[in-house]
Design goal:
There is one protein chain. By secondary structure, the protein is α/β, with parallel strands linked by helices. The chain is built from 15 helices and 13 strands. It is globular. The structure holds pyridoxal-5'-phosphate. Pyridoxal-5'-phosphate (PLP) binds at residues 102-104, 107, 128, 130, 170, 174, 199, 201-202, 230, 232, 240.
């Protein structure tokens, strides 16, 4: 079964393989007992290895054990779930928040829950796959606007007579590292009476001194703004959240199928997220180090002729003219002890190396790269 399909993928250089690390992930990883500098992880602040995060998981295991038994609406959650929701709502300045099991399940659950066939969705063409799949699961009419193109967005919005309009965007686009024009999107939504749904997976813990994209753009929470983010990236943990007004969160917790019909995250995962969040709130030096590392890497790449003019964040790219060139470059670096994955279709149209820098990289790591 699938032999022909697999052969075709192989011939097109599209067959991917999963590497297995010997130990934990971080700026240095070990594969088959060989060390590699790692530039592939979204662990932006290096918190997945932070001793306080690891300790919180161990302590929580002692108190709460592991499995959570059932979905939260069925079996309830631990007091840690509730605490994390209160903390993340306070962190984002919203009335309320709800935990989801992952960013993927948040986007695919929330978008269908807040739209119906009478509604229209406007989605940036480079939005993350989970947002695209959320739109596909929704019964609303979805219109795709050209990447960051506000004129196109407005043209599409003017054409529709839908009951409710929902504009969906990543804050940081995960494969290019560029930012959505959120101030413009905010204004367009305000004037059109639309809902703004923002995926801040790569902005939370990174932008706005760690508070995320809206803090960066100085946008205050409104009842018509819904923001989601993840605990799996800068917080070094796992899982995701949605933050917004009390009514919106209540509605989502009653209707999002990925929340209703999926077992809750184990408490120790929540304990890790709580600790990551606390560290981001208390120690601004991590975010500062992330950005100074980002500058060092950006300048270094520029000095050898790779000028990524698009990225504005710790996600940097080296674009190549062909897929085979991206794969060759990634293989060459791997042989030199540097792990940077080549990104290929269907994840992106234009092949590239996707490089992520973190606060945990040292200057030596960056200069070696
Ligand atoms: C923009 C964006 N949204 C959502 C997700 C999904 O998050 P998770 O990995 O927690 O499922 C990702 C993860 O890669 C992402 O980049």
């Amino acid at each position: 079964m699938f032999e022909r399909e697999l052969r075709e993928l192989e011939e097109k250089h599209l067959l991917r393989h999963i590497i297995s690390r010997d130990l934990s992930q971080g700026p240095v990883i070990t594969i088959n007992k060989k060390k590699y500098l790692n530039f592939s992880s979204n662990d932006y602040l290096g918190l997945s290895n932070n001793p306080a995060v690891v300790q919180a998981v161990e302590d929580s295991l002692q108190r709460h054990a592991f499995g959570s038994g059932a979905s939260r609406l069925l079996a309830g959650g631990s007091i840690l779930h509730k605490k994390l929701e209160e903390r993340i709502a306070r962190f984002k300045g919203t009335e309320s928040a709800l935990i989801f099991n992952s960013g993927y399940s948040a986007n695919t659950g929330i978008i269908p829950s807040i739209t119906s066939e009478a509604d229209a969705i406007f989605s940036d063409e480079l939005n993350h796959a989970s947002l695209i799949d959320g739109c596909r699961l929704s019964r609303a009419k979805t219109m795709i606007y050209r990447h960051r193109d506000m004129t196109h967005l407005q043209t599409l919005m003017k054409k529709t007579k839908a009951r409710r309009k929902l504009v969906i965007t990543d804050s940081v686009f995960s494969m290019d590292g560029d930012l959505a024009p959120l101030a413009d999107i905010y204004e367009i939504c305000r004037l059109q009476g639309a809902i703004l749904y923002m995926d801040d997976a790569h902005g939370t813990g990174v932008l706005g001194r760690g508070r995320g994209a809206f803090a960066h753009f100085k946008i205050k929470p409104e009842t018509w703004i819904i923001q989601m983010g993840t605990f799996s990236k800068a917080f070094g943990a796992f899982g995701a959240f949605v933050a917004g007004s009390e009514d919106v969160i209540k509605w989502i917790s009653n209707t999002a199928r990925s929340f209703l019909f999926s077992t809750a995250l184990p408490s120790c995962v929540i304990a890790a997220a709580l600790t990551g969040l606390r560290l981001v709130e208390r120690d601004p030096s991590m975010v500062k180090r992330l950005w100074s590392n980002r500058e060092r890497l950006f300048e270094g790449l520029k000095s050898i002729g790779y000028n990524d003019a698009v990225s504005m964040t710790p996600i940097l790219t080296v674009r190549t003219t062909s897929l085979s060139k991206a794969l060759r470059l990634s293989k060459y670096l791997y042989e030199k002890g540097i792990y940077v994955p080549a990104i290929r279709p269907p994840t992106v149209c234009e092949p590239r190396l996707r490089i992520t820098i973190t606060a945990a990289h040292t200057e030596k790591h960056i200069d070696t790269f």
